[in-house]
TrEMBL record:
Domain GH3 C-terminal: 390-494
InterPro entries: GH3, GH3_C, GH3_M
Protein name: GH3 auxin-responsive promoter family protein
Pfam families linked to this entry: GH3, GH3_C, GH3_M
């Protein structure tokens, strides 16, 4: 079990054996050394002299000097594109058998993110670690762990490429490659999990809901909420616990849970435990390890080497594009409360890779972080520096204040009367006056963000807000071909998607 749970020696014994302390810096150095050793004979490792970094006493700094920062477009065009033709040993040893199709929230074309057997193994270890951590939660219903695990994910029926690889949603790949010992607990089962039609999959889950005893649900909040609403409506019950009395744990990730919490809790008959995880197509980054933790703890000892780029004007331009040689800090160099963009190097052949998320450390000693947004999803038309974190908090406070469910929203910045304005589009099926909601959100953002408050009295002249039904948002995602568990509605609309959104609001099509 030592590979799954870290065994810590008592300090006195460690000192007697002269074992160096297992610090975050040391864990990350070991991870980097292991990754570089494994990949040194790949094309990438040869070009960027991994052997040279391995021989240097300061391996981290040398690695940063030798290897440039990559975003998806750069690493795909220069490296990953070859692997789709079956070329082995490009950025990681061997051929790539699986690709996670990821479009994020703004890109039109699908991204092909390599998924290696080593990465799948690392993810499995972290899933088990996360499960064990929840056993320690005092408020957790222990019965939940012996019941069914409902995983609302992408289709396990993957598309096959000419070179013999398979591609699909990461959740579909993970479900297809689930460990044999998990089969007994896994729901909705192989047949339903393979379905590509999201509506058909949801309807099948609803039909079988009474046959299952679900204790543990894993998925993106919006789609899990929709599924439970459908079940409650179908069986004419008051709450989900009348169908699944042992439901006790909800594991979520991908988006901030704050805006969903009010609507989610309306569906429950008794309290449950919420566990946030940080799982991206590129790797399992962290999870909430303690019951009352402020954030998610980064996994520093399982094949991901992290770097942190201060999210400021020095390292990113006005559109959120990273500069050529940004300042990149390692785990022992970061500060609490500051916002960073995340770079990752992993056992799937991503190297100094910008995943697009911004985070801040909320507990530096425990290396716990909160996701604050995306490098390209923020509003700063006139210096208001409005982050997705600010938006999520304002929506959460508004939903609690007005006692309404707001499962989705998006914000647009635009010129207005020689100055600028923000327009909010908010999804709710509950009754609320749009102007009351607008004034409340504006007021809370002024309290949350000093820059916003300053600009609201100068160049940011107005805030508009339009209340739409939840179906309006879902229909747009359906027209975009993004209906399903892996797709998230963008919190900030820009570029081509904004054009499509405006056209959709006017004509009903994109």
């Amino acid at each position: 079990m030592a590979s799954i749970i870290d065994i810590k020696l008592p300090k006195a014994i460690a000192n007697a054996l002269r074992i160096p302390p297992n610090t975050a810096k040391r864990q990350q150095q070991r991870v980097l050394k292991k990754l570089l050793k494994k990949a040194r004979f790949t094309e990438f490792g040869q070009k960027y002299h991994f052997d040279e970094a391995l021989m240097d006493k300061n391996i981290g700094k040398k690695f940063q000097q030798l290897v440039p920062v990559h975003d998806y477009n750069k690493i795909y065009e220069e490296w990953w594109k070859k692997t789709l033709d079956g070329v082995p040993d490009v950025t990681w040893p061997g051929k790539i058998k699986y690709y996670a199709l990821s479009s994020g929230t703004s890109e039109a074309a699908s991204k092909y993110i390599p998924i290696t057997k080593e990465l799948l193994r690392s993810n499995t270890i972290n899933y088990v670690r996360q499960l064990f951590s929840v056993f320690g939660y005092e408020e957790a219903n222990k019965k939940a762990f012996t019941k069914g695990f409902l995983m609302l994910g992408g289709a396990t029926d993957l598309q096959k490429g000419e070179a013999g690889w398979y591609a699909g949603d990461l959740s579909g790949i993970l479900a297809k490659k689930r460990p044999f010992w998990f089969q007994t607990f896994y729901k909705p089962g192989g047949r339903i999990a393979a379905m590509k039609d999201w509506n058909q999959k949801l309807n099948e889950i609803v039909e079988h809901a009474r046959d299952w005893d679900i204790g543990y649900i894993v998925g993106v909040p919006a789609w899990c909420q929709m599924c439970m609403e459908m079940i409650i409506e179908h069986y004419k019950v008051k709450n989900i616990h009348e169908i699944w009395p042992n439901f006790g744990v909800f594991v979520h990730g991908g988006v901030s849970f704050g805006p969903y919490k009010k609507g989610f809790e309306k569906l429950l008959g008794k309290p449950i435990v919420y566990v946030e995880n940080y799982l991206s197509s590129e790797g399992f980054i962290g999870y909430k390890m303690r019951e009352h933790a402020k954030g998610m703890q980064l996994v520093l000892n399982n094949n991901i080497f992290f770097e942190f780029v201060p999210f400021d004007d020095k390292n990113f331009d006005a559109d959120g594009v990273i500069v050529k040689n940004p300042e990149a800090l390692m785990i022992h160099e970061v500060e609490e409360g500051k916002e960073y963009a995340l770079l990752m190097s992993t056992n799937a052949g991503t190297w100094r890779y910008l995943i697009g998320d911004t985070i801040k450390f909320v507990d530096l000693e425990r290396h716990e972080v909160a996701i604050t947004g995306r490098t390209k999803h923020f509003l700063s038309l006139v210096g208001e520096h409005l982050s997705v974190d600010n938006m999520n908090m304002a929506i959460q406070l508004a939903s609690e204040h007005f006692n309404i469910s707001i499962p989705e929203f998006t914000v647009v910045g635009h010129p207005y009367e020689n100055f600028f304005a923000h327009t909010w589009y908010v999804a709710t099926n509950d009754t609320v006056h749009a102007d009351d909601l607008r004034q409340y959100i504006d007021k809370k953002l002024r309290e949350l963000n000093d820059d916003y408050a300053t600009e609201r009295d100068s160049a940011l002249k107005e805030v508009f807000l339009e209340v739409l039904t939840e179906d309006k948002f879902l229909k747009f995602m359906e027209l975009k071909g993004k209906l399903g568990s892996q797709h998230k509605f963008p919190r900030v609309m820009k570029g081509k998607m904004l054009e499509e959104w405006n056209r959709y609001l006017q004509t009903g099509s994109i």
